Amino acid sequence: MQNSFIEQTASFVKERLKNAESGHDWWHIQRVWNNTKLLLETEDADRMVCELTALLHDIADSKFHHGDEQIGPRIAGEFLLSIGVDATTVVHVQQIILNMSFKASLGEVSFHSKELEIVQDADRLDAIGAIGIARAFNYGGFKNREIYNPEIPVEQHLTKEAYKNTQAPTINHFYEKLLLLRDKMNTPTGREIAAERHRFMESFLQQFYGEWNGER
Ligand code: ADP
Ligand code: NI
């Protein structure tokens, strides 16, 4: 039964995200789902809640729905109820989706659970390392941002509003978010993987500045 719910959800999400922008496309979901399964090997939690949430966490991005932060949880909940998932599981999945994003974590977060910790780590791992770098420049290009501008200072601890409204070059995003994630990881395995990916980003930045300054 559980596996059938997960399979049906995967098909629903894959179909719905067919034309999604590439930061939150099916491949992002598949990577987060895989990261979730990896973390579940060493963490004790409700596997179905974790996998369903990994699959549904970006079903509708509030950025593209006039900032409506309820739309993702609503669509996820309607779908899960329609295939017969029990109400307790559905509410738990909705709570996690509402509270797990980096943006949400800059505001007031009132909900916590082991399952949230796992899926949040899985999502954060996809925002750092080589994939994280690729996604950041892809997003910056989509927004027509500069890759870097040494005249625009870097800000480290933006408020939720400032984070949402920043127009800064993509390199700044490393300091606004990517390099902060390592110390926000919830699970031991997540922390280990994040540490490696963090080092990779640091070495990328060092190389980037070197090339920028015309060093060989
Ligand atoms: P979250 O849902 O955790 O708040 P986002 O939806 O903001 O994450 O981000 C989706 C992807 O786009 C991530 O890989 C993120 O790092 C990247 N991204 C978000 N904002 C920016 C930005 N200002 N510049 C570059 N990349 C960004
Ligand atoms: Ni995501």
TrEMBL record:
SUPFAM superfamilies hit by this protein: HD-domain/PDEase-like
InterPro entries cross-referenced by the UniProt entry: HD/PDEase_dom, HD_domain
Domain of life: Bacteria
Residue ranges of domain HD/PDEase in the record: 21-137
Signal peptide interval: none
PANTHER family (UniProt xref): HD_PDEASE DOMAIN-CONTAINING PROTEIN (PTHR33594:SF1), SUPERFAMILY HYDROLASE, PUTATIVE (AFU_ORTHOLOGUE AFUA_1G03035)-RELATED (PTHR33594)
The protein's name: Phosphohydrolase
Source species of the chain: Sphingobacterium griseoflavum
Species lineage: Bacteria, Pseudomonadati, Bacteroidota, Sphingobacteriia, Sphingobacteriales
